[in-house]
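Many introductory courses stop at the sequence. We go one step further.
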Amino acid sequence: MSDKVAYNIVKTMFDKKADLVNVHREALNFDYKYQTNAHSPIPYHPGAIKYFAEKGIKLK
């Protein structure tokens, strides 16, 4: 997946969080505070890292 596509997916998920919550309550857990390397054993995609960096979240 390209960096641009990954970036846009993550951006849309956070920008449209309220819409996601309407169809699946688990989306309430989408929060910037959980976007850390400590919360995921899976490496972040470079496109996601770019999005979170724009929000002030530093990832590896």
